[in-house]
């Protein structure tokens, strides 16, 4: 089984209380993010992935690793570790750069984000409260 590191960016609009989500090809909603490339740090990967998926330039907020999730995808023979970071937007306008990978980008309220991403044990609000969480998502 192949081990893979994956990063996600929690981009939160403080004024509107909304989370930026992307709909990946295959109709799965996630936070912007993706696989870490060889020779890349987790922080470099999250900045690159957000740019590739949303056209936004972000920075990782200091010491803001929010969650580590782990799963086994038996059919794909992959064992990913998911690292979720709090980030803030530096510049850019939201647009889909790779329509084969990303179908849609949306700002959603916290409740909708929680429905779309039930694997965060304490939900998005728990992440925003700075509660570092490890979650084993099981085997599928």
CATH topology: Nucleoside Triphosphate Pyrophosphohydrolase
Spell out the CATH superfamily.
Answer: Nucleoside Triphosphate Pyrophosphohydrolase
Give the termini separation: 13 Å
Strand composition percent: over 45%
Number of strands: 8
CATH class: Alpha Beta
- The computed structural class is alpha+beta
C-alpha geometry: globular
Order of H and E elements: EEEEHEEEHHE
Q: Which stretches are poorly predicted, pLDDT < 50 over at least 5 residues?
A: none
Mean pLDDT: 92
Sheet having the most strands: 8 strands, mixed
What count of helical segments does DSSP give? 3
User: How many domains comprise the coordinates?
Assistant: 1
Helix content: 10-25%
Over the alpha carbons, how many angstroms does the gyration radius reach? 14 Å
CATH architecture: Alpha-Beta Complex
What distinguishing features does this structure have?
140 residues, alpha+beta, Nucleoside Triphosphate Pyrophosphohydrolase, eight-stranded mixed beta sheet, 3 helices, 50% strand
